[in-house]
Specification:
This protein is 50% helix and 7% strand. Strands 1-5-6-4-2-3 form a 6-stranded mixed β-sheet, with helices on both faces. The longest helix has 19 residues.
Length: 457
């Protein structure tokens, strides 16, 4: 399932000591006018993975033979034959468009025989049902969306919850799976759910925090299937594999499959990283999830584990980022030190540039608060490019809004207006409602010292 609680949220307000009566006048003017049309991404540009085939094989086996709970699976399962997808419930038009784009990518990049079911079809291998968000939270309070085998609707899932029908470990092959997405969420959230849950419906069932460039990671940084993910799915449906095979049988054939599909991966690449201990996972989830009584203590545990293990990868950066998120409400300087440390680790690899873009949003926001627009503009450039390349409209809109404020601080008002207008089209896709877009615009405008008024001024 996609965990809504662990995403690197775009929380910027704590960068500024707010005071009652602060009024971002320019943002208010835009908020009262009609917003520009929604923008959406057209061409996907996934970068091929730089991982070695040895690393990919290890990740493939852990993804395919373990559930998110940690339970081991005895058999490899997939669909054996064409996969047809139908949409039910109350989908919005953008869901249909994004699903068609995703299916086209799965055919072209993963070589999977997957397409829409015939119009009016009452059955299909995969059902995507768009339901109200409250219905999803009714069954899984921390989930944005989820996937279940052997049912064709949320109503059927409700009837089957206490039965063995929806047990992934009891399957020998996949025949029918349903994906439940929030039909009333923002277009980006629905698209993100389609990518992760459909990929798990037809492919690996597990998530691994050690993966730096994958939607199969509960940190929710990557929300669109990457080059790594497509390679894993292509291997998943290679003719050399079949449902019912044991882990050892798959492991024996996988090196040959990967060498054929990814010849570049046979020569070196990043060394495999160690498995992520359950203690670190639980600490991160407690730090960034809801309802934790002492989130700072949980964040410190996660960071302590990362330091003790000598990690220098994205998990170390994520630990610093989580610590910064917790601290920024009470100790901004300490939070900034954590964000800078996180950026240092994320900047080490091209595979973690999207992680870095989230940290850039925090550091650029602080530079704007300090009236250092040129420093903010320099920081923002790589983050904007990364957000666009990875099709993250919410992050892209946020970074563009920050850029507009920095340009305005620099006296480049006409450029600022153009960038701000551009940000709004992306914000409508990323944040959804006009109210949410305007709230984000005003939140970021309030960082600008030129737009802050003290009470009574």
């Amino acid at each position: 399932m996609r965990r809504a609680t662990l995403a690197l949220a775009l929380a910027l307000g704590a960068c500024m000591p707010a005071s009652e009566g602060e009024t971002p006048t320019r943002a208010a003017m835009i908020a009262e006018s009609s917003l520009p049309p929604m923008r959406s991404f057209a061409a996907t540009r996934p970068a091929p993975t730089a991982a070695s085939n040895t690393e990919i094989a290890r990740d493939f086996l852990d993804l395919a033979f373990t559930l998110e709970s940690g339970r081991e699976l005895e058999r490899f399962t997939r669909f054996e034959g064409p996969i047809r997808v139908r949409v039910t419930g109350a989908p919005k038009p953008m869901l249909q468009r994004d699903l068609d784009r995703l299916l086209a990518r799965l055919r072209a990049e993963a070589g999977i025989d997957i397409a829409r079911a015939a119009q009016g079809s009452r059955s299909a291998e995969v059902t995507v049902e768009a339901v109200p968000r409250r219905e999803i939270r009714r069954y899984l309070p921390q989930a944005a969306c989820f996937v279940v085998p052997n049912v064709g609707s949320l109503r059927e899932y409700a009837r089957s919850r206490q039965s063995g029908r929806i047990n992934w470990s009891a399957m020998t092959t996949r025949k029918r799976v349903s994906v439940f997405v929030p039909g009333d969420a923002s277009p980006q959230e629905v698209r993100d759910c389609l990518h992760e849950e459909l990929a798990q419906a037809i492919g690996p069932l597990n998530d691994l925090y050690r993966l730096p460039e994958s939607v199969f990671n509960d940190d929710n940084v990557h929300t669109v299937l990457t080059g790594f993910d497509m390679l894993v799915l292509r291997a998943f449906y290679d003719p050399a594999l079949r449902s019912g095979m044991s882990r050892d049988a798959v492991a024996a054939r996988l090196p040959g499959v990967l060498d054929r599909l990814n010849p570049a991966g046979a020569f070196g690449g990043p060394a495999p990283s160690e498995a992520t201990p359950r203690r670190w996972i639980e600490a991160v989830q407690a730090a960034l999830g809801p309802g934790t009584p002492d989130r700072e203590a949980a964040a410190r545990r996660a960071l302590s584990i990362a330091e003790a293990r000598g990690w220098t990868d994205h998990r170390r950066g994520f630990s610093h980022y989580a610590m910064g998120r917790i601290l920024q409400g009470r100790d901004l300087e300490a939070a900034l030190a954590q964000f800078r440390a996180a950026e240092g680790y994320f900047a080490r690899s091209p595979r973690t540039q999207l992680h870095r873009a989230y940290v850039i949003s925090q550091l650029a926001a602080h530079a704007i608060v300090q009236n250092r627009p040129e420093a903010a503009l320099i920081r923002l450039e790589p983050g904007i490019a990364s957000a666009e390349r990875h099709e993250n409209a919410a992050l892209l809109a946020t970074l563009l809004m920050l850029r507009a404020e920095a340009l305005e601080l620099s006296g480049r008002d006409s450029e600022a207006r153009a960038v701000r207008l551009d940000s709004l089209g992306w914000a409508r896709y990323g944040f959804g409602s006009d109210e949410a877009v305007r709230a984000k615009l005003e939140e970021i405008a309030a960082l600008n010292p030129l737009k802050r008024r003290t009470p009574g001024s």
